[in-house]
Amino acid sequence: MTVEMNPMLAEVERLQQSCPLDLGTSGWTAISKREADAFDRVAGIEVDFAVHPGGPRRKTAVNPFHLLALLSGFASDLGVPGIETTEYITMLNYGYDDVEWHSPVEPGVRIRDHVVLTDVIERPGGFLMVQRHELEAEGIPDPVMTAVSPGFAILL
Amino acid sequence: MQTVRQDLQSYFSPLESGSTTVSEWVSLSQLEVDLYGGLIGDLDPMHNDPDWAPGIEKWGGTIVIGSHLVSMLPAFLRLHGFPVHVPGVRFDVRSLARVRFIAPLRIDQRVRDRLQIMEAVEVAPKTWRLRTQHTLERESFENREEVLDKPFMFAELITEYCEVA
User: Fold this and answer.
1) Element (H, E) at A149
2) pLDDT confidence of residue A88
3) pLDDT tens, A103-129?
4) Does pLDDT of B120 surpass 80?
5) Residues A142, A100: contact at Cβ < 8 Å?
6) Contact B40 A66 (CB under 8 A)
7) Which residues of chain A does B71 touch, with a Cβ-Cβ cutoff of 8 Å?
8) How many domains is chain A partitioned into structurally?
């Protein structure tokens, strides 16, 4: 009997040897006031329209969890060399570690994410691919948020 | 909405480490999940297409986006009675030490937060820092009396509350 090897296994093992691997920096994006207000609503925080009559005239920073929620999109845009979701592999969001918010970000300020693949750890059924994020905001010298996001790569 | 200023000292000082409270049940609708996915640029059939056959086969329907319920931790804190977004108190999220997504949660499936106080410390005059653990328990979709063994999510959060003029 011939046992067919998952072709992604070699790619994942190659990545293990390459860590830490700089995955690069995303393009710039910005969260508008309207988006920030809408996010608060869907996150269960009321927007006080008595204070902001006539529509979204937000005077506060964006919800810190809004910044966190964008990380998976940034990471997905940057990708991991050699790894694409195919019939051989799928990625699940496993969680977050060590998320810290260092500075508030106002609506309209451009942000981008710098991502490093720090570790690839074998686990039953797949591999944890650990990425470290540094979220940068235009005009602010230090990262406004840092976070670690382990993704679970399941070899199919 | 609460209109009186919170007396944080009398609120936080009696809190005991290890004490636990359980929130009321909440759920997310398909519309709420669609709006959230659109806002964060993560539209995926597993979350947003109720007719997607693999999702129906695997989970019985669409499932929520994990970060959506992470983003709702302040709303859960408020359900527990903490002074989140009330007049006279500045509320800040400081850090999230750990989040693990353990089992899927379907759209409209109810979830509740079992919160454990880890630490409540006055870090500066009229400023309290709170460390909490959150276990988001799932109700069985088929039997509303049953709490499932595997929760949706576990999280450790640090928040800060400051009396302001």
Assistant:
1) strand A145-155
2) 65
3) 999 999 999 999 999 999 988 888 899
4) yes
5) no
6) yes
7) 39, 42-43, 63, 65-66, 68-69
8) 1
